[in-house]
Specification:
With 157 residues, the protein is α/β, with parallel strands linked by helices. The protein has 6 helices and 6 strands; from the N terminus they run H-E-H-H-E-E-E-E-E-H-H-H.
């Protein structure tokens, strides 16, 4: 079994970072990101992954405040763990059930048969980093995906 450090390069990829995208709903943001993860061969079936993420959203909104949402899904259509990032060009209301707005969206996917707590570890490490105001400011202002990749790659997942 490989260490998490060895897997980090596969979990966070520059090709899964999108900045200043014109999306105005949760569904648009998720479909945009899922199209990318499918193109990069992280998932077999984008529609089934979307359904898994939306099922998780029914349990509780993944908008966590400060314009951040961390939607996630654990399903057998995910081939390997990933974190995809999208910064929308404007904040928008994440869901009808919540008043929280989102602009920084981190989509996390893990295989159903993966280490049982892997998605929780990724969410935990990401959430810790998001407490850092300077980190969030960089996510909001950097325009080059390479710079955002370097920021995200520093997270210990």
């Amino acid at each position: 079994m490989t260490s998490l450090d060895e897997d980090k390069l596969e979990v966070i990829s520059e090709r899964l970072i999108s900045v200043d995208c014109h999306v105005s709903t949760r569904e648009e943001a998720l479909k945009y990101l899922i199209t990318q993860v499918k193109q990069e061969n992280y998932v077999d079936d984008g529609d089934r992954f979307f359904q898994a993420v939306m099922e998780r959203e029914k349990e509780a909104s993944t908008a966590i405040g400060d314009l951040i949402a961390i939607p996630h899904g654990k399903t057998d259509v995910v081939k390997r763990p990933f974190v995809a990032f999208l910064r929308s060009d404007q904040a928008f209301r994440w869901s009808d059930a919540s008043t929280e707005a989102a602009q920084l969206i981190f989509l996390i996917g893990v295989p159903k048969e993966s280490e049982s707590k892997l998605h929780l570890k990724i969410i935990s490490e990401l959430s810790k980093k998001l407490l850092d105001e300077a980190f969030k400011e960089k996510l909001m202002t950097y325009t080059n995906p390479k710079e955002i990749y370097a920021l995200l790659n520093a997270i210990n997942v």
